[in-house]
Amino acid sequence: QVQLVESGGGLVQPGGSLRLSCVVSGIIFRFNGMGWYRQAPGKQREWVATITSGGTTNYADSVKGRFTASRDNAKNTVYLQMNSLKFEDTAVYYCNTHTLQGPQWGQGTQVTVSS
């Protein structure tokens, strides 16, 4: 079955950086676009970034210029490099892809930005 496993979250000070990873199995990874989403406490899950199978990226306005999505097809892994982190970036971050069985999600990784 399809599995997505995120890692790399943690506690970071404002202005700091983190790199999230999402390892994917159960699909032909190189053919799939991947998304990053996040959900802050008390808020709905929101889209953060997308990277297509060809490597084209798109970002939410709130993270544009600070976050960078990338992928390594040899490792079945998608990354989210997060720089200049702000308090409002605190959330659980999820990776996502779409299959014939529908949208697939990882378990999430917590990112906390705090001084």
Q: Count the strands?
A: 11
Structural class assignment: mainly beta
Order of helices and strands: EEEEEEEEEEE
Rg from alpha-carbon coordinates: 13 Å
Beta-strand content estimate: over 45%
* Helix content class: under 10%
| Mean pLDDT across residues | 97
Distance between the termini: 40 Å
Number of helices: 0
Largest sheet: 7 strands, mixed
Q: Pick out the low-confidence regions.
A: none
Gross geometry: globular
Question: What topology does this entry show?
Answer:
Layout: E1 3-7, E2 10-12, E3 18-25, E4 34-39, E5 46-51, E6 57-59, E7 67-72, E8 77-82, E9 91-99, E10 102-105, E11 109-113
Parallel strand pairs: 2-11
Antiparallel strand pairs: 1-3, 3-8, 4-5, 4-9, 5-6, 7-8, 9-10, 9-11
Question: How does this structure look, described?
Answer:
- By secondary structure, this protein is mostly beta strands.
- Helix content is 0%, strand content 53%.
- The chain contains no helices and 11 strands.
- The chain has strands at 3-7, 10-12, 18-25, 34-39, 46-51, 57-59, 67-72, 77-82, 91-99, 102-105, 109-113.
- The strands form 2 sheets. Strands 2, 4, 5, 6, 9, 10 and 11 form a 7-stranded mixed sheet that branches. A 4-stranded antiparallel sheet has the order 1-3-8-7, with no helix packed on it.
- The mean pLDDT is 97.
